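assembly run, all chains below
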Amino acid sequence: MTDGHVLEDKSHFRGVWVFLEQRTGGLRDVSTQLIGEGRRLADLRGMPLTGILPGHRVDALAEHAIGYGLDRVLVVDDPILEIYRSRPYSAVMAQLIRRYKPEIVLFGASKNGRDLGGRLHAILETGLAADCVKFDIDAEGNLDMIRPSFGGKSLAHILCKKHRPQMASVRRNVFVAPPHHPGRRGEIVHEAIAISAKDVDATLLEFQEFTKEGGLRPEEADIVVSGGYGLGDPKNFTMLQDFADRLGGAIAASRKAVDSGWVPKMLQVGQTGMTVRPKLYIAVGISGAVQHLAGMQESEKILVINIDPKAPLFEIADYGIVGDLFEIVPEMIRQLDELKAGGVAALRALPAKAR
Amino acid sequence: MSVSAPAVRPMRIIVCIKQVPKAQELQVDPVTQTLKRVGVPSEINPPDANALEIALTLKDRHGAEVVVLSMGPTSFDESLERAVAMGADRSVLLTDRILGGSDTVPTAYALSETIQKIGGYDLILCGEETTDASTGHVGPGIAGHLDLPQLTYVSEVRLADGKVRARRTAEDGTEWWETAMPSLCTVNFGCNKPRSPTLTGKVRVKRGGVVVHWSCADVGIDPKKVGLLNSPTIVAKVDTVKLPPREGRIFTGEAKEAVRALLEALIRDKVIAP
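ok done. output:
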């Protein structure tokens, strides 16, 4: 876009864009969440909010997306765009950005959003801030892109002052999705973008959807029971699953547990994994490296079970038990079963010493 | 799968690595609430070590020259030497003061130019992101600069019929993709167990000459496109995060009693329903 050159005049870059990412015929959560934040930024700048929707036969989806607060959707319809592929999607985005010159472009920090943003920012030679958690507009009208720096113990304010567009990615569940108003009016513009079969440089041979075994995904659960290196063995995650089942929760894991090959990467909470903000996060045998905190410190309540009273995670705990997880967790399961059988009366009847 | 035609030269795999402070060693200063970086030992960025392991596995299986590339100060030699000791053939460090403060745009540009200078590559591997900056932008940025096919977040790479097949982990499932070569893959953190340096490898490092230093001028990198001043983004300021105060109610004593007291508290506070 800027071809690496500093822009003397940025005034012809106008509007806020949100890349609309699809997930089996619908919009990905992070995209609807971004429409809400994009609306706020567009209003602050007094500019329109546009959704960008590359895909195939996606007019109904574009119509639906407007209901979340968009003024306009640019649809690029091509069979090549039916599934996400790096090259055709980045070619489409680069051409649209060159054509319309938006001031701000927001992406979900999903795998595809990052894949796209990373390629695109190098093609356009403009700034991209990853994993932002907050936005502001500074006194000069620049987008203040606020992201956790190393492990989430501090927040860095990133500015892209001399290049346009200003691009940023945001993880799922950082913003709350706005309400949907089916009656909202907006414009749907079909854009003709030259892409051809030679832009298809990767072929999807096989797709195996993750099974929802054990019920919930950690990002969707109200209660997350997360296991760390302290579990000592992959088979102990079965115990954790039993525990989570009693609470209607989902299991997750620390990097070290994933790194040890005990549970799949998709369950990893933390800087290189997912961000969760459940009502209750239960950390079992996790000492709490800063990278782990980055993925869970926004949880409403945190319960820490660890044998080491000096485990850093206790510092941010609402509740904690210092003790052997192999005694505590089975005891929790036992008492939860008792409660279920006997109701609250059973609990009240017991003397509570350690309150 | 047919047998590949005999290659004129061995396949060349370039692995991009960064040296980062050892993640597990990082502690937060309880007084200043900032990270204590002084005296923290360094390591190969862990996802990059996973990328290197994939390269070395491909070398074991198909025969390949593995070239490790990094950009940074000469202290990065430590990680490049380790990579050679693990089994890489040689390494290149792009090192120049004018690169200081580069964000992901100049970094992707400078690495792309260096990759071009190395030349003859069939596959480029990067880690999915670094554990210190954590953007994941440089790998796709290199692919964008070099106009290569890219596959991100892969855990397994196979080569067949002159093509790359890679298993990618997305939010909703596992995908197998195929691209022509040359192409670039970014590798998932923790997808394999990086091997240890071998005795032969250590001897090679000891003999010296396994790291080549190139300056921007050596590579032909435009000084007006790198460094802090030529980076689109700047860090305007850094705020310390003040986490909301937590109650910190610790229950101790015998498991049975501690658990009972905890469950009572959780139910009373309406955190869980009985």
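Chain A touches chain B through 106 residues (CB under 8 Å).

The CA atoms of residues 229 and 257 of chain A lie 5 Å apart.

not gonna interpret more than that til we talk
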